[in-house]
Amino acid sequence: MIKLGSHISFKKPDYLIGAIEESLENGANAMMIYLGPPQTTLRVDPSQYNYDKYLQKYSSVIPSENIVVHAPYIVNPASPAKHKFAIDFLISEIKRMNTIKAKYLVLHPGSSTEYSKKDALETLVKSLNEIIAATDDVIICLETMAGKGSQVCSSFEEIDYIIKQVNSERVAICLDTCHVWDAGYNIKNYDDFKSYLVAHDYLKYIKVIHLNDSLNELGAKKDRHANLNKGFIGLNTLKKFVFDKDFQNIPIILETPYVDNKPIYKQEIEMLLDDIKLINATEQQEKLF
C-alpha cells in the first residue's frame, strides 16, 4: 500500500495525539516528527508523549511503523571532534523512539568540516557501530545529502560504503528527492535512475523517502526544497515515486515549504494522489473522516 505523509509538529500538550490528528486531517497515513526542536537536543520525558492514548485511539489508522523520527540537525556523527556527543544523544533518542515503537530514524550523516572525507566516513562507521550496539530495533536511515559544503553521503556510493562497513540490517537509506537532484542524479529520467539503483543493488536499502521538489537546477549542491511542481523536478516525476510498486509500504514524507506561514501538505497530498484515499476502508478509519 501507499504510505504517504509529511513532517508534522510534535509539541505540548498533545504530542503524539496532536501529530496524528493533524496528519489525518491532511489525508495522510504516515508522518515524520522530531522528538524536540530540530535545532537543539532538548527533549521532554517520553511519559508526556500520550502513547497509551494513541494505542487506544489511532494505532490502527497510523501504526507505529508509519511514524518516522528525524534526528536533529546539529548532531554530527561523522566529525572526529564531535561524534561522541552525537553517539550519546542518538542512543538516548533511539531509546525515546522505543517508547512509541517508531521504526525508522532519519539521520543526516554529517560533515567532514576540517577533517578529510576518509576520516569522516570512518568516524561515521564507528559512530553507527556504537549506536547500534547500545540500542535495539530502530533502523537508522542515512539521508542522501545534496553535497553542500563538506557534507558526506551525497552519493549512493558513499552511503553504500557505510552500510557495508557497518554490516547491520539496522542501517538503511532515506532517499531525499531534492537532495539527490541537487547532488546530480537526474531523477526526471526516472527509468534510468531506477535502473541505476537496481544495477548497484541500492534499491533494497531504501526504507524512507523524502518527497520534495527543488528550487535548484540539477547538480547545484545547494539543498533548497520547493513545493510540489514549483521547482525543477516537477509533479509528474514525484508522482512516480508514490506509485512505484518498489516503494509500496515505504513511508514517503513531504518536507515542502510553508506558504503564507502555513503548511500546504493537505493540498500536496491531494495533488499526488488524484483523489485516491489512503485510509483503509475499515469501520474505525471511516469514522475519522
Automatic annotation (TrEMBL):
Keywords: DNA damage, DNA repair, Endonuclease, Hydrolase, Metal-binding, Nuclease, Zinc. The keyword Iron does not apply. GO terms for molecular function: deoxyribonuclease IV (phage-T4-induced) activity; DNA binding; DNA-(apurinic or apyrimidinic site) endonuclease activity; phosphoric diester hydrolase activity; zinc ion binding. GO terms for biological process: base-excision repair. Zn(2+) 3 binds at residues 179, 223, 225. Binds 3 Zn(2+) ions. SMART domains: AP2Ec. Its EC number is 3.1.21.2. It comes from the Bacteria. It catalyses: Endonucleolytic cleavage to 5'-phosphooligonucleotide end-products. Its cofactor is Zn(2+). Residues 23-272 form the Xylose isomerase-like TIM barrel domain. It is an enzyme of class 3 (hydrolase). Endonuclease IV plays a role in DNA repair. It cleaves phosphodiester bonds at apurinic or apyrimidinic (AP) sites, generating a 3'-hydroxyl group and a 5'-terminal sugar phosphate. Belongs to the AP endonuclease 2 family. This is Probable endonuclease 4. It comes from [Mycoplasma] phocae. The gene is nfo.
